[in-house]
Known about the structure:
Blueprint: E1 6-8, E2 14-16, E3 26-28, H1 62-66, E4 72-74, E5 91-93, H2 96-102, E6 107-109, E7 115-117, H3 122-168
Parallel strand pairs: 2-3
Antiparallel strand pairs: 1-2, 4-5, 6-7
Amino acid sequence: AITQRIIIDNTGNVGIGTTLPLLQKFTVIGNGAFSGTVNASCGILTCSDIRYKKDIQPLQNTLSKVMQLKGVSYYFKNEEFKDKNFNDNKQVGLIAQEVEKIYPELVQTDNEGFKSIDYAKLTPILVEAIKELKSQNDALKEDNAQLKTSIQKLDTRIESIEKLLQTILPIPQANK
């Protein structure tokens, strides 16, 4: 049996891996690989509806894990990997092998053993790390407010003690 590999429907929509390219100009069922830059003028969406998910667990200890990540700048070895169509621009990112030790679910390994990072999945991790920082910051603000109150009370007591001492033992005033 011959299977269709690509279809263009009567509205001009293109489908690969599907005979029904629904609602989109281009529909691919299966994985894709791009060599070069992918431009999306209105964003890149990842399915995230709760109806797709099970065994949902909150992320734990995100701040300590984020602190282990090391952002780097680098240039691609575009001469060595000409087929990848890497550009000459300075890049910023993370090293996949290092991320894999901390968050293996963010790293994919291809058939040749090269690793890639799903940077979009860093977003919920960073959100939770920011929330941890906020919680720590709020606790420090509360501690600071309590310390200020304690200092004010101590200052008031010291002034009272000084006044009492002046009535008992007059302390000479320094010339101003």
